[in-house]
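Q: Could you write out the predicted structure for this multi-component system? I'm mainly interested in how the pieces pack against one another.
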Amino acid sequence: MQFFQPATWVEALETKAAHPEAVPIAGGTDVMVELNLDHNRPPAFIDLTRIGELTEWGMEDGLLRVGAGVTYTRLVDELGDRLPALAIASRTVGSPQIRNRGTVGGNLGTASPAGDALPPLLACDAQVELASTSGARRVPVREFFTGPKRNAMKKDELIAAYWVASAPGPQQFAKVGTRNAMVIAVCSFALALDPTRRIAGTGIGSAGPTPLRATEADEFIAGELDWANHTRPSEATLARFGELVAAAAKPIDDVRGTADYRRHALAVMARRCLSWCWN
Amino acid sequence: MVLELRIETTVNGGRRVVEDVWEGESLLHVLRERFGLYGSKNACEQGECGSCSVYLDGALVCACLVLGGQANGRSVVTVEGLDGDRVQQSFVEAGAVQCGFCTPGLVVATHDLLHRVPHPTEEQIREALAGNVCRCTGYAKIIDAVNLAARR
């Protein structure tokens, strides 16, 4: 096993190009579990924790560019006002110990359907910035997940950052689990509303092979909401929104819950998130 | 650049060096098996139990989830570094210790909480300690201990 500790982003990209099988590690909250339990013993690690720019965020070209290495703790502390759904989701990740280390870059790299940060990124139409020695490209999060724990990254690429609009309107996130902390989601849901453009975005977690967007629900609620006067949606509208979100899920029965339960819970969470956002 | 399996780090204020470390070794393993610091407990090895909680450059982390090499050049404080602290004494006095296995992790996590929030509410205590599992006490005495430490 080899351990690389690049000091710069350029050096990290060169290392990945030379060692495409090397596994990048930042907070280690996924990678170390695989290693400690001997589920996976990669030939090499690339430690990304020495690269300062991965831990920076700021506004560029009218969007927030958040470095892949910004921890969940920092998202809660520093970006709660700009990225409320992502910050709410971040607060449900693991424990303080996990939030101090875990990063959204890692969540994207692992690409688990249960990754807590992923439904908010879907709902907000974020883009993932991937980089290699050949250059950088941006992939819409909607196209990033290609299967369970699979994503659109090439072997020589690393995740540099994600790009997302500072919230133009209300956002919410909800998650079902057996505890308020330290749980992998049975299922989760994120909602982002943009009153200026009159559009809605959704994200479904842990109820399909990948995180999913409920496109029909997006379109339905964008047409139904009283964007001008901000009156509360009717019970029928809330119920229909929940039904459409549940219908967009592709859940299975597993140890954490049944497919039927997940659909039911998603409809409930969707109604709640919408009524919290638009009250 | 390939590290020559050498880790140089500051542990509890003192410089520590270890050579010939396996690249896949966790910081927890380095602390216990290379440095003989057995206070940080090895239990779940997946960040679920909090028994290996330490400070890494001032941030509360699970040592089992830090790759040894990642601690190179960093500063680590373990429960041994908090010896004699008010938190430790409060756990003893409140009877927050039964088998004691989770106690070092809880002491470090409580120390971190009180540094951030000197007078936490019960909800803040429960959220801050959510990553530290105790299978003996039922947590009531642990919360008493945190409150006792906060009053000191």
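A: Regarding packing and overall arrangement: Residues 125 and 143 of chain B are 7 Å apart (CA to CA).
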